Amino acid sequence: MEQGTPCLQCGHVVPYGFRFCTECGTPLPPNANRISTGNEQLDSILGGGFKRGKTFLVAGKAGTGKTIFSLQYLMHGANNGEPGIYVTVDEKPEALLDDAMRFGWNLYDCVQKKRLFLLPLRKFFAFDMWRKNPQRRLESTMKQLSERSREIGAKRLVIDPIAPLVGSIQDLQLVREYVRAMILAIEDTLNVTTVLTSEIPTDADASFSRYGVEEFLAAGVIVLDLVKSGDGFVRTLTIPKMRWTEIQPSTYMFDIVQGKGIVINGKRI
User: Fold this and answer.
1) pLDDT tens digit string along 66-75?
2) Domains parsed from the chain with CATH numbers
3) Long-range pairs, 138-146, Cβ under 8 A, ≥24
4) Using CB atoms within 10 A of its CB, is residue 102 exposed (0-12), middle (13-18) or buried (19+)?
5) CB-based contact 196:215 (threshold 8 Å)
6) What are phi and psi of 144, to 5 degrees?
7) Strand pairing partners for 114?
8) Residue ranges of the chain with pLDDT lower than 70?
9) Phi-psi region of 138 (alpha: psi -120 to 50; beta: other; left: phi over 0)
10) At what angle do helices 134-152 and 172-189 cross, to 10 degrees?
11) What is the pTM of this model?
12) What are the residues facing 74 on neighbouring strands?
């Protein structure tokens, strides 16, 4: 599937990464190769948003806002002509829809209008899926993603979280190769910009992910955290990595606001 930005002058699809049309030479808009994160403040920090067609990791410990970040990203796309797919293995779509409605997000409407597809992968596979070899498992996953992507014309993808898709693979090196193969397959075959979430183990020292490989394969990493401050906690967002983006490593404070999601409210000194 060809990926790129249509030239406003001649209509030629220019591959992501070019600043000029490869057919007629017309300059592309500054943000042509960027896709909004759904957060205006973060878009500004990132120079327009995520780089189209790439994979980004949102990491954090339990309760730091990873799912809120992911749904905010998908909701923005659903409301702006960029349908998305939300992949879950452990959570039932009905529960997610109800929780989002209580938060102030009407995912039901997005699903009904085919702007959003909730893909509970466990529903599509037999219980012996986890005993299949990794290649078969990857093929099954990509088949479902490809079919749903074509069905709604998806431009955005969220896998929240990635760990359950690994299943019962025990060998760490095999796990890392499996995750690598999945990310490359998504980027090579689906016309989407992907957000993966990963829980940071409480005993992790330097890794931003469960398997220690996601952050190296992703084009960018955003870390959400809860930091002790006085008698309470503050929520923080840090961007330790963002390829091809001029950004100074900084930590920002944010709030989770009903009906809006993540709202960045200042840089943490």
Assistant:
1) 999 999 999 9
2) 1-32 (no CATH), 34-267 (3.40.50.300)
3) 138/178, 138/181, 138/182, 138/185, 141/165, 141/182, 142/182, 142/185, 142/186, 142/189, 144/119, 145/85, 145/87, 145/119, 145/186, 145/190, 146/189, 146/190
4) exposed
5) no
6) -65, -45
7) none
8) 1-4, 16-17, 30-32, 123-132, 167-169, 201-213, 269
9) alpha
10) 30
11) 0.86
12) none
Cα torsion through 132, 133, 135, 141, rounded to 10: 30
- The residue count of the chain comes to 269
Tokens coding 197:
């979430």
Which helix (H) or strand (E) covers residue 95, if one does?
helix 93-103
Coil, helix or strand at residue 179 = helix
In the numeric block, which tokens belong to residue 209? 């992910």
Task: Confirm if 19 and 27 have CB atoms less than 8 A apart.
Answer: yes
Nearest CA to 5 among 74, 57, 70, 51?
51
Q: How far is the C-alpha of 241 from the C-alpha of 23, rounded, in Å?
A: 33
Q: Given the structure tokens 């702007």, which residue do they identify?
A: 115
Backbone angles phi, psi at 40, to 5 degrees: -60, -40
Predicted confidence (pLDDT) per residue in 158-167, tens digit: 999 888 777 6
